[in-house]
From TrEMBL:
This is Uncharacterized protein. InterPro entries: C19orf12 (IPR033369). It holds the Pfam family C19orf12. Belongs to the C19orf12 family.
Amino acid sequence: MADYVGMAFVPYYNHLIKLLETSKELKQSAKGIFKQMAWAAGGACVGGVVGGPPGALFGTLAGGVIGFCLSDPYKATITVLKEMSEKDKKRLVEEVQKLVGANGIEALTKFIGGQVQREMLLNLIQKFVNDVKGG
């Protein structure tokens, strides 16, 4: 009986993962993409100043390659969530339930219906994942 009560968060966690797997915002794993984009944009600016439009093209390509080479390897957030310990999964569910303001799966589904709430949830999850990874 104690094991069952201790595992009561599992259906909620599984539903959360299912919702996240369908989230196009999360699929982009923005951290690595942003770094690469910043290098490409910086290369475009420098190249444009130095060589005009052809320089901007070359600078963008060079910046993109540099950004790719310098970016840290990172796991997709969903992969990190799936590989977490049971203790961390339970903590995540508790944090999400606090944000949603209810414990039911239906409330979670309703909560992510709004863009602002969806962004709040994704920010909470990204922060949680960074904390779990030690980043």
